[in-house]
Structure formats: C-alpha cells, structure tokens
Design brief:
The complex is a heterodimer of chains A (196) and B (156). Chain A is α/β, with parallel strands linked by helices. In chain A, 41% of the residues lie in helices and 16% in strands. Classes of the chains: A alpha/beta (196), B mainly beta (156). At the A-B interface, helix 1, helix 2 and helix 3 of A face helix 1, strand 1 and strand 8 of B.
C-alpha cells in the first residue's frame, strides 16, 4: 500500500516536471515566431499621438528648475524622449543640439526628456548629456508622462506646433545615412506650419 | 496528493496557455530555450542555459562597452541541495549602428548560452531565476526587461 502510494506520488511529480519542461519547450518557438514589427523600422514609425494635442507636463530639469510645456506656448517645440541606455538616441541628440541653435531665432524650442528609471543617478544622466555636447533643457520623466505620450521605444520625438498640436511624431531613428536630414526636414515643416 | 499535483499542473498550464494567446505584440525579445539536463551528483557540473534573441534584435552582452548601457545578467535563486557558482557569460559580438558607424557595441544576437556551474545532490532540482536584458533593433531601443527562467535538471 505504502509502496503504491509512493509510486503514485513519484509518478505525479515526475509527470508534472515533464509537462512543465514540455510546456517551456513548446512556448519558446511560439514566442519567437511572432516577431510583430521586429526589425521593421527602416524609417521612423508613427506613434498614435500625431494630430492630437500634446499632453501637458511640468517636469524638473537636470538643473533643478521646473519646466512646463505651456511655458513655450506660441513656440514650435521639439520634444524628444530618450534614455542613457539608448544608443540610437545618442546618435541623434548632437543633431538636435545643432538644430536647437540653428532655428532658435525662428522660435524653435528643443526639450529632451530622459526616461531613465528614478534609480539611475542624476549624475549619470548629466555625464551623458555633457559627453553629447547637449545644452538644451533635459527634463526628467515619470511613468504618468510616459503613458500620456505612449512611450514604448526610444527615441520618440514629437513636433508640437505653436497651438500645442503634435503635427509630426516619430519612433526610432532613420536606419542609415540621411537621418539627420529627415529630422531637419521635419523641423522645417514644423516651423512652416507654425508660421501660418 | 496526486490529485493536488495534477490540479496544480493543470492550473500552471492554463496560465501558460493564456499567456501564449494574449499578446499580439511580444513584450519579450528574448526567450529561454528549456532543455532537459542531467549532471553528475555531488560534483561541480555546468548547466548550459540557452537563450534566443528575437530576429532583428540585439541585446547588450554581459559586458557592454559603456557603463551607461544595461548588460545582460542572469540571477538564479537558491534551491535546497544545489549550490550555484558565478555565471559564465559568452563574449559578445561587435555591432555597429548604420546611422553611426563610429559607435561600436558589444551584443548578443540569435542564440547565446550562459553557463551556470552547480554542485547538486542526487535528485531532481528546480532553479528559479531571472534574466535581465535590454534589447534594441537597428533603429530603436526597448526598455530593460526581466525574463523569468525556470531551470529543471536532474543530478545522478
């Protein structure tokens, strides 16, 4: 009797382990074979916010000062979400610095928003910003804002016109040469639409 | 007892099946490729844990070239009868973003294997752990993710 019960328990445990291993093995190819848009973004993708009012925010900058989107009402604003762990972001940020200076007189404002986790030291973000030569304001994001802007990947950029509408929104960078030109063309479009 | 085990197993399977059908867009870019492994009991042995990176993506290696990048890291929890030593990670591959050929990254693509040295008593064992990684494709990066890893092996 005791032997029989022991055997039954052993068989149950053994079968459970076998099923779990089989399940793990079955799941692996199932997940891999659904790559969605993996590797697709040869061009920047279009987030859902395009054409809508840019969500308002008030964030603390690296310099400790609070900055709100509404502070720049009447200006075309380029809002760029990035993170220190995102290499494509760091490719385009020096370009944004250049455009920030180049189009300043036409009213363009560039705001960088770091989506790094709160446990990333501010000093690490400051080091990255300094290394990239960025002088435009860098603000620190939070989950609520990331959700409002539907941030899923890095970088994401929002071209906000003088009225506060997102006229262009992009995810990722252009893969290959020409990415800088594409951003500048979008900025020119933003400035042109804002001038109307 | 057996009924309870079967019920627990069915419950676990239902959860797994549910999660298989739910997401259209996968949130994980790395999967653990579970394999049955048997090691010698009472001696130092090595479990080979294989992971697959989704096609079109790369993850930073365990030792990325920049301190700001998030390296791939595997942690295995404690389990009775099993001692786990420090993980052994494979070397990464050179990866260059076409938008910035000057920047060299050290990454894993396709398949990579992390070795877990263990000393285990005779019997069947289970190690629960988690793989932390951060994935990118050639144009964008995705937030750091944690993948639950359940390692089943036998020592005899």
């Amino acid at each position: 009797m005791v032997v029989g019960v022991t055997l039954l328990i052993w068989a149950g445990v053994h079968n459970a382990r076998e099923r779990r291993l089989a399940m793990q093995q079955a799941m692996a190819p199932r997940v891999v074979l659904t790559p969605a848009d993996a590797g697709k973004p040869d061009e920047p993708m279009t987030p859902k916010l395009q054409g809508k009012t840019a969500p308002e925010f008030t964030l603390v900058g690296l310099d400790g000062k609070k900055v709100s989107l509404k502070d720049y009402k009447g200006h075309p604003v380029f809002v760029n979400f990035w993170a220190t762990w995102c290499e494509p972001c760091k490719v385009e940020m020096p370009w944004l610095e250049e455009f920030s200076e180049k189009y300043k007189e036409q009213g363009l404002v560039v705001l960088g928003i770091s989506t790094d986790d709160p446990d990333v030291p501010k000093s690490a973000i400051e080091r990255a910003v300094k290394k990239l030569g960025v002088t435009y304001p860098i603000l620190l994001s939070n989950d609520k804002l990331n959700e409002a802007y539907d941030i899923e990947v890095q970088p994401e950029s929002f071209y906000v016109d003088r009225k506060g509408t997102v006229v262009i929104a992009t995810e990722g960078i252009y893969d290959g040469q020409g990415g800088k030109d594409l951003i500048e063309a979008n900025i020119r479009k933003l400035l042109a639409e804002s001038a109307q | 007892m057996r009924a309870a085990l079967v019920a627990a197993s069915l419950w676990f399977s239902a959860i797994q099946l549910g999660s298989m059908d739910a997401p259209v867009k996968p949130k994980q870019h790395v999967v653990y490729v579970a394999e049955a492994q048997t090691v010698a009991a009472g001696k130092r042995a090595v479990l080979e844990l294989r992971f697959h990176v989704e096609e079109g993506f790369h993850v930073n290696s365990h030792t990325p070239k920049s301190e700001l990048l998030i390296g791939t890291d595997l942690e295995l929890g404690a389990s009775a009868g099993v001692k786990v030593a420090a993980m052994e990670y494979p070397a990464g591959k050179l990866y260059v973003l076409s938008a910035d050929p000057a920047e060299k990254l050290d990454v894993y693509t396709d398949d990579f294997t992390v070795k877990a040295p263990v000393t285990a008593s005779a019997g069947e064992h289970e190690l629960k752990g988690r793989l932390t990684y951060q994935a990118c494709d050639h144009a964008a990066c995705y937030p750091p993710r944690t993948l639950a890893v359940d390692v089943l092996f036998t020592a005899k």
